[in-house]
Amino acid sequence: QKLGIAIAFLNQPQLIILDEPMNGLDPKAVRDVRELIVKKAQEGVTLLISSHILSELVKITNSILIINKGKLVTKTTVKELNQYEDNDLENILLNIIDKEDQS
Asked: What angle do CA 23, 67, 93 make, to 5 degrees?
């Protein structure tokens, strides 16, 4: 996992796509990857991160796209999600997906 992340950052790309970058990493490696992602974003690199570890996403993102069954359900921000009465991010996202499934 660490090697794949390192390879993704080679040659200073302007777009990096990461699939579950924190999956299987020890706590120190998670912190290191998080710091690297934030640093690259501050440098202007666009990062598209697919992850089910929602608690990590809110630490490193400003925009969140919710995709369900291959379809974009919503685009939101961490700030907007924090305005929901339910402060459990997982519940908020599942409610958004459930509403989409019902429509």
From this structure: 80
Summarize pLDDT for 4-13 with one digit per residue, the tens: 888 888 888 9
Classify the C-alpha dihedral 94-2-33-43 as positive or negative: negative
Token look-up 């579950």 returns 20
Q: Which long-range contacts (CB under 8 A, 24 or more apart) does 32-37 make?
A: 33/2, 33/5, 34/59, 34/60, 36/5, 36/9
The pTM is what? 0.75
Q: What percent of the chain has pLDDT over 70?
A: 97
DSSP state of 29: H
The answer to whether the CB of 50 falls within 8 A of the CB of 20 is yes
Q: Is 58 left (phi over 0), alpha (psi -120 to 50) or beta?
A: alpha
- Domain positions in the chain are 1-52, 62-103
